[in-house]
Amino acid sequence: MSQENKQPVLLSLEGGNAQPLSVRAKALVFSDPISATLLEYIERIAPSEAPVLIGGETGTGKELVARHIHLLSGRKGPFLAVNCGAISDQLAESELFGHEAGSFTGAVGKREGWFEAANEGTLFLDEIGDLPLPLQVKLLRVLQEKEVVRIGSRKSIPVNVRLVVATNVDLDYAVSAGHFRRDLLYRINIAQVKLPPLRERPGDILPLAEHFLKTYSQRMGYRQPQFSAGAVDLLVTYSWPGNIRELENVVHFALLVSSGDKIEPAHLKVTGGWSTGSNHQQVPQPVHQPLHNTNGQSHSFGNSGFGVHHGGLNGSDGGAGNGSSGSDDPMTAIAKQLRRLFTEQGDSDHFDKLESLIVHEAFAHVRSNQVHGAALLGISRNVMRTLLKRHGLLADTSFSRVNDAGEQEEDEVQHLNASYAG
Fold this sequence. Notes:
Radius of gyration: 23 Å
Shape: globular
Structural class: alpha/beta
Number of helices: 16
């Protein structure tokens, strides 16, 4: 069949047996040429036994890709999904590998872990970068030996599990920062899928919008309206910083507020990817450009390598008073302003002020979402919480954490500060 006659492939989480890990992308379409090429690649690697590392921004459909890989793999066991960022450090080992009765306080009976439950199938570990370092060692052993040992047991249990993991942060950067084991990264990064953000595959936007419009119209008992020409133009030119998840929410809201047979631009509540002028003129944000460090090497913290969209200083802001041109990237502009700061103000508590500025700006950028803030800065959530408390953005509620968890947070921050000093 010719490429022109092919219908785009749509992946959806609709249905009772396909519940997502959390509020995330619930549909993914392969209509854009970039997506079609990606689908061909996924179809080639899916039948193998190799672990797969899926990288991409939040809301791009990583879990849907993982489910599709399992579907194409031919494995007879179940597909099980675990959000590594949602399980506590104290219970993570029991959740993954199981425990025997009486092995710790509260273990009233024996329990199989996720690896045993996924035997002969696929285990999807989302937010793999949030796994504590001690647990990363045990995960590496399971992958190498293909067997698990429950907590409180000395007997190993063979498992045959296809591992698919996902991350929205740069694991190479996490390795350099001491938050992720290099040997584990080598083990899980045999087959890599880089899922582009929605703004880099505009051919997928309208099919997805139509899908969500149809889905919510049927669910709410509405007659399905159509997108006006202006609405279509807005949909395909907006940068979608929240990716597919944001698109779904925008379409849902538009259906609620539209009163006729047409959805107009005024019904599309998009705010995160525009610079709004006095006449509400909507202008797309600039597409991310690679940042460069002082050695001239390309570097992008956070989601490097996955086409991350960064807002930041523009040329006029970055070079104010210092002769900066509009072509400067944000890191170059920041470096110039730092040199100016050091020259004009000399010795001072610059580090604390800069750290506070970074934390405040990052937290505002992600709209006070701790998980997204940690991902944006390339640090763990524990470090993010400690920094938020340090700079007055989060109340220090002692009842929310046990003492050893608080000490672990401080250890991570000390490690982070030591890496700065180095």
